[in-house]
Design brief:
The chain has an eight-stranded mixed β-barrel with strand order 5-6-7-10-11-12-13-14, surrounded by six helices. It has a three-stranded antiparallel sheet with strand order 1-2-3. It starts with a strand and ends in an 8-residue tail after the last strand. With about 425 residues, it is an alpha/beta fold. The radius of gyration is 21 Å and the shape is globular. The protein has helices spanning about 65-80, 85-100, 110-125, 130-135, 175-195, 215-230, 245-255, 270-285, 300-310, 325-335, 345-350, 350-365, 380-390, 400-420, and strands at about 5-15, 20-25, 30-35, 140, 145-150, 165-170, 240, 260, 270, 290, 315-320, 340-345, 365-370, 395, 425. About 40% of the residues lie in helices and about 15% in strands.
Length: about 425
């Protein structure tokens, strides 16, 4: 009953209106799984390759017809007849067929689509929800959401250099109350912006994208919105940042400089030490609990200094630094860089490798945060993975746009199904 009978891919559209891949898997007993692959805008240079056609006449070069063909013509015939429960064997076979270290031959998007669809079909055949199939009976932690309510950097056309300013509702006993707080703060922030005559248009991930006096003003706006929504700043609601400083590093290098360029505001170029001082200053003034990509992906010496400076009290998350790849995470462990990993399934390209990265992080006492991408779909797989791994945190955008809310809504369903057995991630080790 678990034998793979068919695998089929098609091109669909993601939340930005760009093509992406959807894969369907059907088993012998009729069990069915469908998965859609996300796409990033701010991407690390070591991510697995997202295969696009490059034909300017089709979607501006972004079509994925070759990746679709790789699923239907090259991978599917080889996987037909395999047992869908053998996830690692299926994923390993696809890596073998591809034959490259970064999935450049067939495309990580092609491989990931199959990997997720097979897992969904196997879960259905097993009569289990996906989180239970992937995580077993111990899967019961509903993650604390990181709600990206204010955008800048590559995710917005504003003058804010840093990419994401998030609120994180740690101080609650259950997911429903925490999510409601995040939603109410989001709407409160809209009113605050409107009353100041600032834009309430939203970016790729649903966050507002106003022009501000400076980068720090974003934090002051979050505090005002939180207070006006009736929540306790620094007690119930904390801040998570993703400045995406690799973008600032790249801008400086375009100008032939070394360091980080504030490419939207002052145009200043600053050093790693300057960036560390900025984060230290902000952490002293605001209830910041998490900083993702506080330094660039190749600034390993700087990351070590940042970790020594703030790592005992702040979650320092490697996204571009680790790209969900255990090889880079192992380097981070060896060089004592960061204390958490952001987990994006399409950075690495298979569920098996995703779980390998999370398991290594857990064994090494690093936190893990499941994450969406800026180009998303209604696929909610990462919500189930977050619960399956008991990672305790998820990053999936503002409570706006169906592509983001699909993940929150799935977590609502899972929490309801678990009932009294559900544990809210606010009780996890990062809560102080």
């Amino acid at each position: 009953m678990f034998e793979i009978q068919s695998i089929h891919a098609r091109q669909i559209l993601d939340s930005r209106g760009n093509p992406t891949l959807e894969v369907e898997c059907t088993l012998d007993d009729g069990s069915f799984g469908r998965a859609a692959v996300p796409s990033g805008a701010s991407t690390g240079e070591n991510e697995a390759v997202e295969l696009r056609d490059g034909d300017a006449k089709l979607y501006g070069g972004k079509s994925v017809n070759n990746a679709v063909a790789n699923v239907n013509m090259r991978l599917a015939p080889d996987l037909i007849g395999m047992d869908a429960r053998e996830q690692e064997s299926i994923d390993a076979r696809m890596l073998e067929i591809d034959g490259t270290p970064n999935k450049a031959q067939l495309g990580a998007n092609a491989i990931l689509g199959i990997s997720m669809a097979v897992a969904r079909a196997a879960a259905e055949a097993s009569g289990l929800p996906l989180y239970r199939y992937l995580g077993g009976s111990g899967a019961k932690t509903i993650p604390v959401p990181m709600l990206n309510v204010l955008n800048g950097g590559k995710h917005a056309d504003s003058n804010v250099d840093f990419q994401e300013f998030m609120v994180q509702p740690w101080g609650f006993s259950n997911f429903a109350d925490a999510l409601r707080a995040g939603v109410e703060i989001y709407h409160s922030l809209k009113k605050v912006l409107h009353n100041r005559g600032l834009s309430t248009a939203v970016g790729d991930e649903g966050g507002f994208a106003p022009n501000l006096k400076n980068n720090e003003e974003a934090l002051k706006l979050l505090e005002e919105a939180t207070t006006k929504a009736g929540y306790k700043w620094g007690e119930q609601i904390f801040v998570a940042l993703d400045p995406a400083t690799s973008e600032c590093w790249n801008e400086a290098h375009k100008a032939g400089k070394t360091g980080y360029q504030m490419f939207k505001s002052s145009k200043d170029i600053v050093s790693s030490d300057d960036m560390i001082s900025l984060w230290s200053d902000w952490c002293a003034k605001y209830p910041i609990r998490s900083i993702e990509d506080g330094l660039a992906e190749n600034d390993w010496a700087g990351w070590n200094k940042l970790t020594q400076k703030l790592g005992d009290r702040i979650q320092l998350v490697g996204d571009d630094l680790f790209v969900t790849n255990r090889k880079f995470l192992q380097k981070g462990l060896s060089e004592r860089c960061a204390n958490a990993i952001l987990v994006k399934v399409n950075q690495i390209g298979t569920l098996s490798e995703t779980f390998d990265a999370v398991n290594l992080a857990t064994r090494s006492r690093y936190a893990s945060i499941l994450s969406h991408r800026s180009g998303e779909t209604e696929d909610s797989t990462i919500a189930d993975i977050a619960v399956a791994t008991n990672c305790g945190q998820i990053k999936t955008g503002a409570p706006c746009r169906s592509d983001r809310n699909a993940k929150y809504n799935q977590l609502i369903r899972i929490a309801e199904e678990l009932g009294d057995n559900a544990i809210y991630g606010g009780a996890m080790w990062w809560r102080k």
